[in-house]
Amino acid sequence: MNFGLTFRAAKGRWMVKSSRQCSRGSIGLFVPPSPPLDPEKVKELQRFVTLSKRLLVMTGAGISTESGIPDYRSEKVGLYARTDRKPIQHGDFLRSAPVRQRYWARNFVGWPRFSSLQPNPAHWALSNWERLGKLYWLVTQNVDALHTKAGSQRLTELHGCMHRVLCVDCGDQIPRRALQERFEALNPTWSAEAHGLAPDGDVFLTEEQVQSFQVPSCARCGGPLKPDVVFFGDTVNADKVDFVRRRVKEADSLLVVGSSLQVYSGYRFILTAREKQLPIAILNIGPTRSDELACLKLDSPCGELLPLIDPR
């Protein structure tokens, strides 16, 4: 399936073109179909939030699809439904220079659009809940920085953030925008055109397109550079897991927003909440791994429903 997104790089000028379908807005491109809002379900979520005094919210890719970022698993519109492509594996990235070259070429082309995406009403709603004292802690499985852009501060980025880059060898960290400038300096005449968009900011390129792409090394030690994210096959830092688990134990309720909870790194905190006998509500289009553990399940777009809830 082609969503009409074209990314072209040529002579240092990076452009994003969109078809008429895309120009009407990317909100609907990656959001799976869902039933109309059920007023009774909205009231139930309102009661859930009202009764919560130390609410922990965990978000997943489903909260960002309305900002124009596809997810992996949504029916018909997720990456797995649209293509046969699989996300990059941690071990492959570390072992193979060609894999790193392919990853960074795709990421370089996709970065201008990915980094320009903005929070949607769901992100702003959760930021407002925090400002008003309703949200105790926010845990996101996303790497898009949209919660930070919306002003959330009581936040743990469970899988890291694409806006940071680190050296695999020495751990030195730089902003992703600084790496983009180094890419442009190393590849002044390189050009590529790509169709489609993948989660986490990259696009689809052919092997021929990436062969001449030059990838910089760490300016401090010469080691390979990696986005500060947890790739598939890697594990979340144990200290971060312990930190989030303590926040869950301190909470009095847990709300899942936009996650199927298929990945254990997030699902484990549902198990912690169950051990603490916390009430769990889930807002996600489609089934999740924890539906049977939830006292409330809603199948609605996050950006439509969350702004309707009064956090006071």
UniProtKB/TrEMBL annotation:
Residues that, per the record, bind NAD(+): 60-80, 141-144, 258-260, 284-286, 302
HAMAP family: Sirtuin_ClassII
Organism classification: Eukaryota, Metazoa, Chordata, Craniata, Vertebrata
Keyword Zinc-finger part of the UniProt annotation: no
Name of the featured protein: NAD-dependent protein lipoamidase sirtuin-4, mitochondrial
A GO CC term assigned to this protein in UniProt: mitochondrial matrix
Primary gene name: SIRT4
Alphabetically ordered keywords of this record: Metal-binding, Mitochondrion, NAD, Transferase, Transit peptide, Zinc
Annotated active site: 159 (proton acceptor)
Family, similarity comment: Belongs to the sirtuin family. Class II subfamily.
Annotated Pfam families: SIR2
Compartment(s) of residence: Mitochondrion matrix
Note: According to some authors, ADP-ribosyltransferase activity of sirtuins may be an inefficient side reaction of the deacetylase activity and may not be physiologically relevant.
Subunit structure: Interacts with GLUD1, IDE and SLC25A5. Interacts with DLAT and PDHX.
Regions annotated as coiled coil: none
Gene Ontology MF, one: NAD+ poly-ADP-ribosyltransferase activity
Domain Deacetylase sirtuin-type stretches: 35-312
Principal location class: mitochondrion
Major enzyme class: transferase
Record field: catalytic activity: N(6)-biotinyl-L-lysyl-[protein] + NAD(+) + H2O = 2''-O-biotinyl-ADP-D-ribose + nicotinamide + L-lysyl-[protein]; N(6)-acetyl-L-lysyl-[protein] + NAD(+) + H2O = 2''-O-acetyl-ADP-D-ribose + nicotinamide + L-lysyl-[protein]; N(6)-[(R)-lipoyl]-L-lysyl-[protein] + NAD(+) + H2O = 2''-O-lipoyl-ADP-D-ribose + nicotinamide + L-lysyl-[protein]; L-cysteinyl-[protein] + NAD(+) = S-(ADP-D-ribosyl)-L-cysteinyl-[protein] + nicotinamide + H(+)
Its biological purpose: Acts as NAD-dependent protein lipoamidase, biotinylase, deacetylase and ADP-ribosyl transferase. Catalyzes more efficiently removal of lipoyl- and biotinyl- than acetyl-lysine modifications. Inhibits the pyruvate dehydrogenase complex (PDH) activity via the enzymatic hydrolysis of the lipoamide cofactor from the E2 component, DLAT, in a phosphorylation-independent manner. Catalyzes the transfer of ADP-ribosyl groups onto target proteins, including mitochondrial GLUD1, inhibiting GLUD1 enzyme activity.
Swiss-Prot/TrEMBL cofactor(s): Zn(2+)
EC number: 2.3.1.-, 2.4.2.-, 2.3.1.286
Cofactor binding remark: Binds 1 zinc ion per subunit.
Residues at which Zn(2+) binds: 167, 170, 218, 221
